Amino acid sequence: MKMKPSRFFLILSLFISLWPSLSHSATLKFVDEVGRKVAVPFPPKKIVSLAPNITEVLFRLGLDREIVGVSIHCNFPEKARRKIQVGSYINLDFEKITFLKPDLVIATGTGNTRNMVERLEKLGFPTYVIFPKNFDGILQSIDHLGRVVNREKEAEAIIQEMKRRRQRVIERTLGLPRPKVFLQIGEFPIVTVGKGSFGDNLIDLAGGENIARNEKKMYPRLGKEEILKRSPEVILISSMNPKGDYQRLLQEWSRWKMIPAVRDGRIHMIDSDLIDRPSPRIIDGLEKIAKVLHPEEFKK
Amino acid sequence: MKILTWKKVIIVSTLLSSLLILVILFSVTVGSVKVRPSRSITILLQSILGLKGGGTETEQAIILSLRFPRALLAGLVGAGLSVSGAIFQALLKNPLADPYILGVSSGAAVGAIVAILMGLSTLSLGLPLASFMGALLTILAVFYFGRQEGKIHPNTLLLAGVIIGSFLSALIMFFISVSQKEELHTIIFWLMGDFSFSNYQTIRIIFPYILLSFLFLYSRARQLNLILSGEENALQLGVNVENLRLISYLSASLLTAASVSVCGLIGFVGLIVPHSVRLIFGPDHRLLIPCSALVGASFLIASDTFARTLLAPIELPVGVITAAFGGPFFIYLLKTRKVVKTL
Hints:
By secondary structure, chain A is an alpha/beta fold. Chain A has helices at residues 5-23, 52-60, 94-100, 114-122, 135-148, 152-173, 198-205, 224-230, 246-254, 260-263, 272-275, 282-293, 295-299; strands at 26-31, 37-42, 47-49, 67-69, 104-108, 127-130, 180-187, 190-192, 209-210, 234-238, 267-270. The longest helix of chain A has 22 residues, at 152-173. By secondary structure, chain B is mainly alpha-helical.
């Protein structure tokens, strides 16, 4: 029997309108790390990441095609640079996001703004917010993200590896003298890491003593006098500014030979992506710091 | 009305100079690290007299490489901004005038921001140099647009300065909006004004500018007095008004440019100090100029000292202190002193 054209088109249009909900087997409800209830089409097939640490986690979990949009700061892995960019931490191109029509947008409390997340929700894009505050928090975020994007096994593997490597660092530095460390993350003004920051957490785990660990602010500004007084034995300089002049900084520090770290030549540069970004590579940052704080131990 | 004598000028200057020296000594003995005052002063004096020794290496570093250059630079900038403010107030016949009113500071800011965005190290000389360039270009632009029939006219100058300043402010906003997180912090920090990176090299560079401008302006003190009584009067009394306006404008702008390019925008000093000095010592520029310089220097050194010690180890921006202390003090002066009709 030949179908009437109008009937054919009716069935076709019905099918087309139902297709989006047919291709997703479910919508799962999650509670994100800031307590928001998020209904995610599961498994999400089009994901937008709003921060570089999120992008790194997603790629490590084995996703690639599913990632349809990233932030302008997302520089790792290499593949991330070729994705469509949807904005910065605080400035989103909502038009682009609307064009991409993601199933899921992932934001981080350590960078993106609440305002941005609310707008995304209003536009109808499920947004999951992570908020890692220290090393353990990062492990938790990887676990949560693994569940949300349907890669729980991969997440578990990453977490186990990170835990194992962290344990190695703790064991090898146990009992070793804890050198006083100054981690510089700003040149002008001089900013360091205080209680509650990732840098402080890492220095502590790596068997060092952050000279600013009792400062209540997360990123306190210490004057040079204060740094002189606290005489750090190791100075770590985080390469925050990609255009920064490391040689200049070294020159500047070399004027203060009464600081043990300068006198002994223990000034080291560390890639800020490894120590200030709550991603799987934070374990690389931890290992690097440990090597620098205890060179004798890690030479073996 | 008492006539100003040179004797009075010398006495007052000596008194204020002594105050300045006391403030410098105070600044050198106070800081987040506890160094015995006697030790601090000994280290300072020994260094000035070329003698060696005294104190540990750390203490010497703190006194001679941190506190003393900081006091010197703050003193220079305080003097520069105060004299500049006094001159602009006379030049524009406007009590609200301050060193920044003609846009020079905005030009300096644009220069600094461009340098920061280009990745120039904030520790190199490139930054203050770029800032100074920005200021110079602004001075030329305002001078070019502020002339009417080939002459400098106060109101036109003011308009040109304010408009160019607004345009530069828009540029600043633009740069801020396109800058990354790390650069943003540096830019805002520079804009707030800071002395924590004072060193002798910077001082050596700006000192000639400040000194020469000051001498130029002081040599014209009498004429500046006359110009306040009206252009006609001044002309009849032999003042080359046009020449005077030109020199004043350039020298005062240079003072501002030199000051801002090394420490950012510090507000209130250029406005409050000249007025306070006028209220206490009178409007005669032969006394006003040196007193503004000395009082301005003391005020800024004291403010900077408080800024770095009030909430130690956190350092406050010095502009917070100049506004917080300068404002109320000025109001007190206004209330208790008869405001002399000067402008």
